[in-house]
Structures are given as C-alpha cells and as structure tokens.
Amino acid sequence: MASFIIQRLNFSSNFLFLLLLVSQSFVLETIAIESNKPTAYEVLKNFDFPIGLLPKGVTGYDFDPPSGKFSAFLNGSCSFSLEGSYRLKYTNTIKGYLSKGKIASLEGVTVKLWFMWVNIVEVSRRGDDLEFSVGIAGAGFPIDNFEECPQCGCGVNCNGKINLQQQARKFGENPLVSSY
C-alpha cells in the first residue's frame, strides 16, 4: 500500500512538473511574440499615416486587422498646442477604425476652435495633406507637420526650438477651418 501511494505521489509530482514546464514555455513564447509586435506608431505607418498623429508616450495598443479597429493607450490625458493657434486634447484611450489613408469613427481627440472644444471624428490622407474632420467642417495640413510625435504639455516645440523647415512652412500659413 505504501509503494502504491509513493508511485501515485511520483506520478502527481511528475505531472505537475510537466504542466509547469509546458505553461512556462507558453508564457515565454507569448512574450517573444509580443516583443515582435509592431508599435502603435508602426501600425499608423502601415496605413500611410505619419507617426505624429499620436503623441509620445503611447503605452500600448489593440488592433484587430480584419475590422481595422484600433485603440491606443496613454498614461493619462494629454494636451498641447500646434500651429500656434490649435490646442489639442487626447484622452487616455484613442479609438478608431484604420484603413489605407483613413481613420474613421475617431474617438478621444478634440481640438479647440475659437472658444469651444470639438471632436475630431475622421482623418484622411489626400496626397501630401491630412484632412481633419470635425463633422460638418474640417481643415487640411501638410503631412510634413506630423513627422514628429508631439509631447504632452508642449507639442513639438518643447525645447523652445523649432526646425527651420517647420518655421518656413508655418510662416504666413494659418489654414482656416473650411466646410466639406
């Protein structure tokens, strides 16, 4: 009887050891797959968008290729000014549907126009320009303005410096919101 119990314990401990090895292997394989996962910025590039549509500091994202559903996550909300007159706010989760050259049903990004905040609901690429829609109105900007990721709090002019190409492009240029 004692040898039966010992054999049973040996079988149980061997089974548990084997189960532990298999589960550890699965975890390590999952970590390896996750480390090969492209960044949220790389996903944008794969759909012909510049990385500067998202601010620095994206902590993670979800992407469902068949539907195009995309969510990017920040540590908290984020705001900054662009073009000297546009104030943007990002919530801690930005959602939308990605397709080649278009982000539809965008949620989590607002822009201050005059005295009120409005949601940016769609971004489309049209050649070398990006068109931002707030529903019945929108504005276009050169794609070059989004080559660099803005930083929460200060945008792209965080060190008080702005590159000469950006300065030349912005001088005398202040696109107005236009209706589609």
Automatic annotation (TrEMBL):
InterPro entries: At5g01610-like (IPR036758), DUF538 (IPR007493). Keywords: Signal. Residues 1-32 form the signal peptide. This is Uncharacterized protein. It comes from Hibiscus sabdariffa.
